[in-house]
């Protein structure tokens, strides 16, 4: 339920204009200091929390990593509340050119020399074409979403069960990579990656390729590695693309040869075949494979930690609907109100992409709950979604995983779920930067829960953190007698 303290659009014009608090410190040393606070001295959430408390504001100035020498300008205006955050969705107010990863952009040598769709602003002519190419791909594969995903899960759960039985635990993050890659490749290309002789290598290649792009935003958390050495290795200079060049070429060749019908369509739409293929590899590897590596561990963690009572409720809903509908279908998934709510709650409390960036196109005034702030043209705006979607003035018990939060009247609160670079109530278009696969992400999240609770009555997990998300160990699984 929204708090009465949330200002309506009509009352925001009456909010007092306040100077944005905070500063960037001395050149070079200020960004380095903030970087050490962010990664080592405080940690990510504490970095934002301490500054929010210090300035008594959810809007303030700070430097965002990596800073020198990877990014030339680390200065941002930070947004941490649900009211100010959506300015980052307004393409008429903010520019999204080369800001996917924030204050730096990975070398285009990692994407075949092209600036792929994710780095383009909607005002650029190629954006419209590439976004429509993505929509075309999704539309052509719609009938395969469910069967291809489900086909990869028996092997996944068999491996998990075997590891729990033999070792007392199963590392979901490690085990699931093969399933992710197999799903992505089969969905896009229409055939098994083993046919392209890439299956055994694919997951590791994608993981290495992702690491080179995102290492400036990571900390390895290795106690035996001094902070200053890790900082020098990961956050000071970009890792050279040649480290994965030959591996990337293997992936590119596999998609080029296996996704011919998709690439044919890209050419019919006006794309060069190689550019279409490099965008396809990015969509498969960064957006989908990389997205699932963050999405599913978080979902399973929160559902697992919620306990047996929720598990019984989910199992009852899922099995009842599947039986009534005669199988796992789009219609069946749409009728699972609790399952949908659980997925939305997981996306709210631990969004797979927690950062959003945009550069102000013009001088503008933004609003938080209790003040207005002027932002100048050209300033970088940064939103930390993990705080914005846990705004206590919008959500009750925001730090708690509330499985039923988005059921019934709670559906009205979906407009405050921002994980897709847009409101959950909005839809991606060629003119905006909302995730083209938004609905597919929700669908496969529901499918994962359906498959778990068709197989098991309950399960236990242990959670931790990894480079850019959660880690999950299965400790036990109780098989069901449901048929």
Report on the structure:
With 483 residues, the protein is α+β, with helices and mostly antiparallel strands. It has one domain (9-479): Cytochrome P450 (Cytochrome p450, Orthogonal Bundle). 46% of the residues lie in helices and 11% in strands. The protein has helices at residues 9-12, 29-41, 44-55, 125-140, 145-151, 153-167, 172-189, 202-214, 227-236, 245-258, 260-269, 273-306, 308-325, 330-334, 337-349, 385-388, 438-455, and strands at residues 59-63, 75-79, 94-95, 170-171, 355-360, 364-367, 372-375, 380-384, 456-465, 470-479. The strands form three sheets. It has a five-stranded mixed beta sheet with strand order 1-2-8-5-3. The chain has a three-stranded antiparallel beta sheet with strand order 4-10-9. It has a two-stranded antiparallel sheet with strand order 6-7. The two termini are 38 Å apart. Keywords: Heme, Iron, Lyase, Metal-binding.
